[in-house]
Design brief:
membrane; DoxX; mainly alpha; 0% strand; transmembrane; 79% helix; transmembrane helix
Length: 127
């Protein structure tokens, strides 16, 4: 589990989560300039109007990213990330197929690879 390949994947995924989670927390890019699709802009505007969803998801992404970069509680971080990465992937499949689909696929793929690498620690959850 501590191969260089796993270390690189864990670090890259952690950095991606920290950057995009901080973006949700700090609202650096509000998305109005690069959201041409009506469905996508309506969806993200509704989350912004509610007020708590994007900061909570952003804080979770930053927390998970820090755990991955520091190699602390990696299986726990991967379990927390699983529904978030599926939601990111589904968001881009249904609302923004052309825009961030590659990034969403990369996050889901890296999460899947790390879950596979840590599978012995997840086995008790399924038996």
């Amino acid at each position: 589990m501590n191969s260089n390949f796993t270390k690189i994947i864990r670090f890259v995924l952690g950095i991606i989560l920290i950057v995009f989670g901080a973006n949700k927390l700090l609202m650096i890019f509000n998305g109005t300039g690069f959201m041409p699709a009506l469905k996508m802009s309506t969806f993200t505007e509704s989350f912004s109007t509610i007020g708590y969803i994007l900061p909570v998801v952003g804080a979770l992404e930053v927390y998970i990213g820090i755990l991955l970069v520091l190699k602390k509680w990696v299986p726990f971080a991967l379990i927390l990330l699983a529904p978030i990465s599926v939601n990111i992937l589904l968001f881009h499949i249904f609302l923004d197929l052309s825009g961030g689909m590659i990034g969403a696929f990369i996050v889901a793929l890296l999460n899947g690879i790390l879950i596979y690498k840590h599978w012995p620690q997840f086995k008790p959850l399924f038996y």
